[in-house]
Amino acid sequence: MSATPRDPNDAPAVVPWYHWIWVVPAAGFLRLWLATLRFRSNVDRIDDTEGPVVLLLWHDKLFVSSWIANRYFRRPVTALISTSKDGAWLVAFFRLMGITAVRGSSNRRGAAALITLTRSMRAGCHVGITPDGPKGPALEFKPGAVSLARLTRTPFVIMGIRYHSCWRMRSWDRFALPVPFSKVEVTLLREPGATEAETDEGVVARLQARLNETSTGPA
């Protein structure tokens, strides 16, 4: 019996090889930008010796996420990134920042991404998810991260991020770019995983509230 051919339209977008000529210097520029920011956190480092966790942050704060992952966590981080062209550029940047990526979303390749992320966590990696991505609505928590936590029986870490001063893009999430040399307040909080006694809706409400408490509004 012949195998069912894979739909080429389902393949994630990638950055063409010839664009890496300027992707690398652009990433260097972004590294310098991040180095100017004055980060303040409620912890010196997350104790992740007991095992991996599901990291949660809102989509508009992705700009500083790789810096936070490298600074405050000992274990490697795998990020869930959409299959879109915008996602392809984000994957390229994350690769240069030492963050691996799994492509998928609630709309495309969701089941395959969930399986790959589960394997990554079982191998000892944290997984970072923007629960309102890839297309919103902004600040609205989707249940995919809860499904992953149930499968892997792992807790969450809230990545609350506030910018003292930032520019906002005209995107669905009003993506934020912190002004160079400005202050960034980081709040890292452990949250229990999804228990059998809780419904998915209850876990979503709990985590959305914690993210909003620590991420919305200026620093």
Write a brief structural summary.
The protein has 219 residues and is α/β, with parallel strands linked by helices.
Key words describing this protein structure:
219 residues, 7-stranded mixed beta sheet, 34% helix, alpha/beta, 9 strands, 6 helices
Q: What does this protein structure show overall?
A:
It is built from 6 helices and 9 strands; from the N terminus they run H-E-E-H-E-H-E-H-E-H-E-E-E-E-H. With 219 residues, it is α/β, with parallel strands linked by helices. The protein has one domain (38-215). The chain has a 7-stranded mixed β-sheet with strand order 1-9-6-2-5-3-4, with helices on both faces. Helix 4 (110-122) packs parallel to helix 5. The longest helix has 17 residues, at 20-36. The chain is globular, with a radius of gyration of 17 Å.
Query: C-alpha Rg, in Å?
Result: 17 Å
Largest sheet: 7 strands, mixed
How far from one another are the termini?
Answer: 60 Å
Major β-sheet strand ordering: 1-9-6-2-5-3-4
Helix content: 25-40%
* Number of DSSP helical runs: 6
Topology readout:
Elements: H1 20-36, E1 38-41, E2 54-56, H2 65-72, E3 77-81, H3 85-96, E4 100-103, H4 110-122, E5 126-129, H5 144-152, E6 156-163, E7 166-168, E8 176-178, E9 183-191, H6 200-215
Parallel strand pairs: 1-9, 2-5, 2-6, 3-4, 3-5
Antiparallel strand pairs: 6-9, 7-8
Helix pairs in contact: 4-5
